[in-house]
Amino acid sequence: MASVPFHYIDLRTFCYATEDEKRVEDAIRNLLPDEFELDRVENKGHHGDRIIILSARVELADDMRYVLERLSELDDIDTIIGELDERIDDNCSFFLRLDKQQAFKNSIEIGNGITLRAKVEAYPAKHAAAVENAETALKQAKEQAGKARST
User: Fold this and answer.
1) How many domains does the chain have?
2) Residue 135 and residue 80 in contact, taking contact as beta carbons nearer than 8 Å
């Protein structure tokens, strides 16, 4: 994948008082390159319970390629590609929710717990151009991951 048609990729998850922060951190780290720095913000919930927000912004092309290759492991990546028109908004942002429990197990699945938001490069910044660019990037990542698995 020569170029990456994204300005950045944001990943975010919440760690509630009933969850082990280290396990939640491991879940989000399984989507990121090694030694990637996470932002940590501690908040309080409505009833005073602790909520920690863990997030990362991926801006370097090689790091974004890594995240895209992890996404290409989704069993239903073709479904995601088919839904890009609905998953990309008018501001050219691509949204996807991933299963936090499965990410902890180093498996990538659609679900709840981790939010991915990627700002798609599109010139002009139009929805249709963003969909086309994201589709190309995801298909290339899928192809690259397939080649890596076959070797």
Assistant:
1) 1
2) no
d(CA 10, CA 93): 10
Domain that holds residue 84: 6-150
pLDDT digit string, tens, across residues 119-145: 999 998 899 999 999 999 999 988 887
Helix (H) or strand (E) holding 15: strand 6-16
Backbone angles phi, psi at 11, to 5 degrees: -120, 140
* Cα 10 to Cα 53: distance, rounded to the nearest angstrom: 13
**pLDDT tens, residue by residue, 40-99:** 999 998 889 999 999 999 999 999 999 999 999 999 999 999 999 999 999 999 999 999
CB atoms within 10 A of CB 32: 18
Q: Taking Cα atoms as reference points, which of 28, 130, 139, 47 lies closest to residue 89?
A: 130
Q: Which amino acid, 129?
A: A
Please, are residues 26 and 63 in contact by the beta-carbon 8 Å criterion? no
The answer to whether position 118 is within a domain reads yes
Q: Are 28 and 56 in contact (CB under 8 A)?
A: yes
Amino acid symbol at 11: L
pTM of the model: 0.92
